[in-house]
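Quick one:
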Amino acid sequence: MSPAASVMTEAAAEKQKESRPAGLFIFTIMPKKVLFVCVENSNRSQMSQAFAKMMGGDSVKAYSAGSKPSGRINQKAIEAMKELGYDLKAHRSKSLDQIKEYAPFDAVVTMGCGDACPWMPAKKFIDWNIPDPRDMDKDDFRKVRDLLKEKVKELLASL
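Output:
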């Protein structure tokens, strides 16, 4: 943007502000921040993060992490999400320490990892207690993926 365009934009904004009735405020809705946590951050939390991004768009900032991250995304998770048009290869397995800078969260969702998932600052804590699909066959893995999709959809509607 050229300096002249910048000045015009600022002037137009000031004029618009002056034309508002006194006491009228414009509020910006901040995206909801959601953290999905499992132990390895290679399956459930990664797919949940992907679904939140897919369904939430700009209204959600989705993160995922693991208490003991494996350092890789499970190939089955990559393939399962590719079937739905999402490229999970761009994701990285992360530790909770790597995402704590984004706290506090509107919701922290754990996948049944119990004490292995330490506390993170959040307004709401939810435990889905979903089995780890790591060693499941393709059909059972897809069932877990589809369950995660429904749970994320419900979660986003509740925020």
